[in-house]
């Protein structure tokens, strides 16, 4: 069975990137081009149901789509550092330009420096402007115009169009190697999500009557059966449950069941086998009983329990810390420290080591906390950072609570 990948980028890049992707057996592409990178979120939203993953031709459309919260499938972007940047330097050198004196946008300064150092080139006369969410093409154009004597390397077609009549500007096009690296990462991520989505989710439901239960089970793409002692068994998989709970944050069906029943308790277990899922569902229901007559809990492996509210959570800035603490199993002071760490970082991603240091805990404890927040939709992994030693890479998390 093949996988359909949506390739998003400017007109002149999409076809080449898609063709490279289609060299991979089992991969087909949906080619989605735009006139300006600002159109990327609307394109993704319009075609979300037609693909299993997204591959963006650069970081800017990817960040715009992520910032608009329209990415419901695995997504990656082609990295322009490394091989792509090196090929541009070779081209400029052949044209007679001084490649130690350039103005480069979008690629992070650290990646630019690393590429130049690996090539044995000095970096003291480079001008770099890494991409940030608030960066616009207009700001990038202004950055390059401040020093018109520096040849320009840009990653954006809009910047290239604005500057090509007044400065020497070279627009980067992703190398085939960079596309293959991004595609490999996407396929691994998509495969992992497919396996996760197929995990068994069992729900044990306690209500006074069964009115509305069959409808709720159908909405979850599942089936309903009598269990024992008046408890109902709801069988579904991780994917539909994730969608229906707003990313494991709230369970709207709980409020609907409570309209017809004085008792409405739900315990969901998520496991790799039916036996594991049932065991976790029992644990979840036991905790729901301790909470009250109307409660829902999702239990996962590694002793992780998430309390699901009767409505999908409010935007992160409006959430009550005591509610969050109860849902993810962390204390309010711990969440306050995490909020301080998030604000101190200016919304940028933090490593597990940085979180551990700020909370004065061991790294494995920080990883466990971040895993709970991620499952609750309050943190997201943004990549890995090599620690510089022989130890495991440090995972980067962006806190969204």
Automatic annotation (TrEMBL):
InterPro entries: WH-like_DNA-bd_sf, WH_DNA-bd_sf. Gene3D superfamilies: Winged helix-like DNA-binding domain superfamily/Winged helix DNA-binding domain. This is HTH domain-containing protein. It comes from Nonomuraea polychroma. The lineage of its organism: Bacteria, Bacillati, Actinomycetota, Actinomycetes, Streptosporangiales.
